Amino acid sequence: xxxxxxxxxxxxxxxxxxxxxxxxxxxxxxxxxxxxxxxxxxxxxxxxxxxxxxxxxxxxxxxxxxxxxxxxxxxxxxxxxxxxxxxxxxxxxxxxxxxxxxxxxxxxxxxxxxxxxxxxxxxxxxxxxxxxxxxxxxxxxxxxxxxxxxxxxxxxxxxxxxxxxxxxxxxxxxxxxxxxxxxxxxxxxxxxxxxxxxxxxxxxxxxxxxxxxxxxxxxxxxxxxxxxxxxxxxxxxxxxxxxxxxxxxxxxxxxxxxxxxxxxxxxxxxxxxxxxxxxxxxxxxxxxxxxxxxxxxxxxxxxxxxxxxxxxxxxxxx
Length: 318
Ligand code: SF4
Ligand code: SF4
Prior knowledge:
The chain is mostly helical. It has 2 domains: 12-38 and 230-314, no CATH class; 66-72 and 79-225, no CATH class. The protein has 16 helices and 6 strands. Residues 1-19 and 313-318 have low confidence and may be disordered.
């Protein structure tokens, strides 16, 4: 690991054909599995979370009892969605001690690890919105469609708490697509499928990445919780970037990438510090130049592999 000396941007020297050829060469050297490693790991993680709740009803082996909102694992580990506890407080309902303990555990975990890791690694709606995004791209549907502003999710979050206060109940849980997706998988609820399909159709036909990146109050809440979290993605080899835009194309929150990836000019850290990053690792998967990696928020080191990678990929002299 060394600090980088200023390097001319590769785009200044490579024409588009050369960059595409370079990308193809790199693709051939990375297997399908490697190019989708974190995607598969995330699906495994999301399935494993649901499996913890399914072993009871299916095989009589009760690992986790309850729901994603409030559960008990192995009879000793209470976990509660802190947003549910906040709604209870707004509705003037006193949560039980166990619920508060469960919420504290969840807050500490996501506060330290990464708030929005919940979105990428746990939430059962994520595969649904990812599928809608995939189909939207495949079908060549209108690039962005109607898009609410990304900060709309924070207004929705505020509204969720206000409504709880006014209604005196945890009203959001009646319509929360995450709760309904859980019910579909674990309880086989057909009625709940309506809410999941609604999110899917919204993302497919109305707004690109509409739900998770613009509206969901749960994602907004966990983003706030993880504002200072430790686990981050770094563009540690940003001088190797050939501006193919693959990372922007797959990232659910593409605005988080530029400050780090383009930050060499201004001396900005290569670490993606935005609370909106879900630490999904998809940028690591798709980047054939090895620009991204998992790290911690204080790791400002860079890897001077750019010249070598550019040379390997394009045959140019570094
Ligand atoms: S934004 Fe909301 S629905 Fe989307 S993955 Fe995150 S918590 Fe789940
Ligand atoms: S920057 Fe990478 S890890 Fe963060 S949300 Fe985008 S694709 Fe996922």
